[in-house]
Amino acid sequence: MTDLSLRSILVAGLCAGLYAGVVPLAAAQSGASRIKPGDHIAVVVNQDVVAASEITLRAERAREEARRRGEANPNMDELRKAAMDALIEERAMVTLARETGQRVEDPELDRVVANVATQNKLSMAELKERLKADGMDFKTFRENLRDQMLMERVREREVQKRISITDGDIDRYLDERQAKADSNPQLNIAQVLVPIPEKGSEAQVAERKARAETALARIKSGEDFAKIAREFSEDANKDRGGEVGLRQAERLPDVFVDAVRDLKPGQVNPRLIRSEVGFHIIKLLAREAAANPNVITQTHSRHVLLRPSQQLTAEVAARRLQEFKRAIEAGQLSFEQVARDNSEDGSAPNGGDLGWVSPGNFVPEFEEAMNALPLKGISGPVMSRYGVHMIQVLERRQVELEPKQLREQAKVALRERRYEDAYKDWLKELRANAFIEMREWQ
Residue 85 and residue 83: Cα distance in Å, rounded? Predict the structure, then answer.
């Protein structure tokens, strides 16, 4: 079996040369064959090894990324330690995948290889020539990609096996959700806001308070609240008479919710409310029962997924998705064709179509970005644990779930809630069960 560490050196070199430009091509080529004089084995992991040059290269790339984020002088010792830990975990994952019979079939691998060429704006022949120039044969390159895919599959399979959801767990989740809905009415509030300057003097604060007291006195004397809001208020809702709009209580500032707790619709809190922003006069326009938690908004969306790896950095994947978005919005490409040609998941043959999905079925970062989109809107690059996505929302609908559907949705939400802890526990166990021998190399 070819040493995985050597393959990883080649992958890291290719990534630096083709994608990120983090290190000079000459440096990338230093790993373009088996370990050469001057390089060392840093760690032995099961049947594989981690080379010192891999750790150094990955740490240097992390340092460049940190500098691009504006972090000054990142600690190289800490970056090397993080790089070494990540490489050990990767080796252990690949070993486990092979031992448990995980496979990536050639047609699927062919498609991923073609996508790598596309991301670098190369034909397949040009990609092979570039690999050859970097000292890497095409077969080795394909096997590097196969290993990356194996790691992802074994991670998802092993972590999901660790998450157990009982009927009792589901019952408690649904009870908690109902209790939360019952305690979270929908409120429509109007306000008059007289702001105070940041770090304002006592005299400035006193002047602002006097203005707010004048407004409150006029409201108490019978003047129309909306009229006073348009005259005195200095917030974005003043032209609507200060009306904030119907919102769930949890989406409003606590100071507002407390101010209307004992009010009936149409009543004004008789006191000025002070916050960090300024002085508020609060009126309760309406209080409605909480929305039925069993009525959900389902979304029909599609996406393009690019999976970052040592061959494709997240930064380059994001740039490529931005290019796709501009081309789609300009009418030069269709979303469906971009997904078919480039997306790296099972929805690609269907143009990235994900079908109708209930809340909780996607990872939170994906769902949050999707929910923020208008109909037909296309997102910028969205990072998730699976890679970098470009999302488009096609339709939305309100659906009241049947009991069986409610329980399935709760199960999905509970699995997502527990995923991160299960993943961390699995990594600890994976390392504990692996043969790891540290070598002197620095």
Answer: 5
Dihedrals phi, psi of 384, to nearest 5 degrees:
-140, 180
C-alpha distance across the termini of the chain, in Å: 27
- pLDDT for 348-359, tens place per residue? 999 999 999 988
pTM comes to 0.51
Distance in angstroms (rounded) separating the CA atoms of residues 263 and 194: 22
- Whether the CA torsion 15, 19, 23, 25 is positive or negative: it is positive
Question: Residue range 321-337: average pLDDT?
Answer: 95
What per-residue confidence (pLDDT) applies to 406? Answer: 86
Continuous segment of H or E residues that includes residue 245: strand 243-248
Residue-wise pLDDT for 229-254, tens only, equals 999 999 888 999 999 888 878 778 88
Amino acid symbol at 384: S
Distance CA 228, CA 242 (A): 9
- Give one DSSP letter per residue of 294-346, joined into a string: TEEEEEEEEEEEE---SSS-HHHHHHHHHHHHHHHHTTSS-HHHHHHHH--ST
Q: Is 143 helix (H, G, I), strand (E, B) or coil?
A: helix
Contact 92, 45 (CB under 8 A): yes
Strand partners, 287: 187
What is the chain's Cα-based Rg? 29
- The pLDDT of residue 400 is above 60: yes
| Single-letter code of the amino acid located at 152 | E
SS3 43: strand
